Structures are given as C-alpha cells and as structure tokens.
C-alpha cells in the first residue's frame, strides 16, 4: 500500500473518532469523558511497554520521537472504549454482557490483523493477534470496572453471575 493511502487511513481514523466523540449523547458525556481519559492513560503506558520491548512497531507514526501509534492509543481505542462504556448492557442477561465484552476486542483484533497484513502502519515482531485480543479484552474490561466504580454504579460488570 502506498504511503499516501496509509496517511489517508490515519486521517480517516481521526475523523471517524472525532465524529464519534461529537455524536455521544449529551446524557452520556460525563461517562464518556471518564472512559476516554482512563483508556488513554492505560493504553499509552501499555503501548510504550509493547513498543519499547520490540514486540511490535509502527513504521508510519505521527510523532518522530514517540514510537507508539498516537492514532490508535490516543484517539481510536479510547473512542471505542467510550461506546462500550455508554452502551454496555449492565443488568441484562449474562449472554448479552459476555457478547459485548468479547465483540469489541474481537472487532479491534480483526481490524488490526487486516492493517498489519496489508499496510505498513503496524508490524508484528514477537506479537500476535491473540495478544491484541487479550490486551484489548483486559483493558476494555478494566475501563468498564473503573467507570462503574467512578460513577458508583452497582451492577454485574466485574463478575459473571
């Protein structure tokens, strides 16, 4: 894929993420802000660890001296966490809650596999798709738990009953 096409993908991800944030319903904005900032904090640190250990790399990135993906860790992934947090079916059937907490990381993983295969935006070294799935599952689940705790919501996020 050409450099121009890859840059267009990054711009498109920023655009879609910004539009997604603008479209958050007004009644959910406080919850969205907490989820967004928590996810940025978590993924920024974990992204630095992964890149510094050489498990994966981002050949095309936004900042010269920061070797992580600003687009993914600061914008796209936190935006995804926002939508998981505001639409998570707390108090609903166990099957539906499990579907939500598995579908989000599965979708992210599938997109990353396509991006890693067909572009130069990400290169796996000792990383694999299952690490992406596991890390996104854990961090999204932590985001749900933190958001429920922060807003003092008592539901079945942290336990499967």
Can you put this structure into words, describing what you see?
This protein is mainly α. The protein has one domain (3-150). It is 68% helix and 2% strand. The chain has five helices and two strands, in the order ααβααβα. It has helices at 3-22, 29-52, 70-87, 94-118, 129-150; strands at residues 56-57, 123-124. A two-stranded antiparallel sheet has the order 1-2. It is globular, with a radius of gyration of 16 Å. The relative contact order is 0.16. The chain crosses the membrane at residues 6-24, 36-55, 67-86, 98-115, 127-146. InterPro entries: CBO0543-like. Keywords: Membrane, Transmembrane, Transmembrane helix.
How would you concisely characterize the structure shown here?
Keywords: Membrane, Transmembrane, Transmembrane helix. With 161 residues, the protein is mostly helical. It is built from five helices and two strands; from the N terminus they run ααβααβα.
């Amino acid at each position: 894929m050409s450099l121009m096409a890859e840059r267009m993908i990054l711009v498109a991800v920023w655009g879609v993420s910004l539009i997604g944030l603008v479209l958050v319903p007004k009644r959910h904005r406080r919850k969205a802000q907490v989820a967004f900032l928590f996810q940025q904090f978590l993924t920024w640190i974990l992204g630095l660890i992964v890149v510094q250990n050489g498990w994966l790399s981002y050949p095309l990135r936004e900042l010269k001296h920061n070797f992580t993906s600003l687009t993914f860790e600061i914008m796209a992934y936190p935006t995804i966490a926002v939508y998981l947090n505001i639409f998570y079916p707390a108090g609903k059937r166990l099957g539906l809650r499990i579907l939500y907490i598995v579908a989000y990381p599965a979708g992210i993983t599938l997109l990353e596999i396509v991006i890693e295969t067909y572009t130069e935006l990400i290169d796996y070294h000792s990383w694999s798709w299952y690490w992406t799935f596991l890390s996104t599952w854990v961090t999204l689940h932590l985001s749900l738990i933190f958001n429920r705790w922060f807003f003092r919501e008592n539901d079945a996020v942290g336990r499967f009953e």
